[in-house]
Specification:
The protein has 216 residues and is an alpha/beta fold. It has a single domain, classed as Uracil-DNA Glycosylase, subunit E, CATH 3.40.470.10. It contains 9 helices and 11 strands. The chain has helices at residues 7-17, 45-50, 57-67, 111-116, 118-128, 138-145, 151-154, 188-193, 198-215, and strands at residues 22-23, 36-40, 77-80, 85-86, 90-93, 100-103, 132-135, 159-161, 164-166, 173-175, 180-182. It has a 3-stranded parallel β-sheet with strand order 3-2-7. Strands 1-4 form a two-stranded antiparallel ribbon. It is globular. The protein starts with 6 loop residues before the first helix and ends with a helix. Bound molecules: uracil. The site of uracil has 12 residues, from helix 3. It is an enzyme of class 3 (hydrolase). Pfam families: UDG (PF03167). GO terms for molecular function: uracil DNA N-glycosylase activity. This is Uracil-DNA glycosylase. Its EC number is 3.2.2.27.
């Protein structure tokens, strides 16, 4: 299922991101009330083109981890804290022609961009109501648990605690009154860059598989 976001929240995001280097719009996808809601950082170029979250190289890695605990895209909700592709503008010399050409590579979203999308993400979480939130990497983790949370310390752990939500004036975050179950994981791109992380990430996913059984 492709989620239909409320128009007033989409308009608000648009107002707050005008003029920023953000492309496309890739909605979150998956069933409501799933066991798992996987939360990434932002769509990349592949996601922007096909409009399916985590469908590029990181996504393929992620699907293998998901399959290792008996889950798939069909029964998992997949989204990220920013719904547009953040890009930078680089001028580089084309090796063949010698001409200067512009490139638009992916970049990490800024804190301000993550804040601009925060009410949309809060709405998405409240609508999807997963049993377990799985932040993938520091951008998603810090959006939910604040700037001191660190994936290197928290990966693979089961946390039950309040999360950050956008304040009514939209200037920052406040802690939720409700508690949520979270199991932070390394972002799948981390294993693409550092293969040595693979055994740790595989063990974290197995731990997540056990946690799901415990809480069901
Ligand atoms: N990285 C993310 O965080 N989300 C995607 O959808 C793709 C790559």
């Amino acid at each position: 299922m492709i989620i239909k976001y409320p128009q007033n929240l989409l308009d608000e995001v648009h107002r707050r991101t005008v003029g920023r280097q953000l492309a496309g719009f890739t909605p979150g996808q998956g069933p409501l009330h799933p066991d798992l809601m996987l939360v990434g950082e932002a769509p990349g170029r592949h996601e922007e083109q096909v409009n399916i979250p985590f469908s590029g190289a990181s996504g393929q890695e992620l699907m293998k981890f998901l399959a290792s605990i008996g889950y798939s895209r069909a029964n998992t909700y997949i989204t990220s804290v920013v719904r547009q592709r953040p890009y930078s503008i680089k001028r580089v010399r084309d090796k063949k022609t010698g001409q200067i050409v512009e490139k638009f590579p992916n970049r990490t979203p800024t804190k301000r961009e993550v804040r601009a999308f925060a009410p949309l993400f809060d709405w998405e979480l409240a609508t999807v109501q997963p049993r377990i939130i799985v932040p993938l990497g520091n951008t998603a983790l810090q959006r939910l648990l604040g700037p001191t949370a660190n994936i290197g310390k928290l990966h693979g752990q089961r946390l039950t605690q309040p999360i950050q939500q956008a304040t009514a004036d939209r200037k920052g975050y406040q802690w939720s009154t409700a508690k949520y179950t979270l199991v932070p994981m390394y972002h799948p791109a981390a294993v693409l860059y550092a293969r040595r992380l693979m055994p740790t990430v595989q063990a974290d996913w197995q731990a997540l598989g056990k946690i799901i059984k415990e809480i069901k």
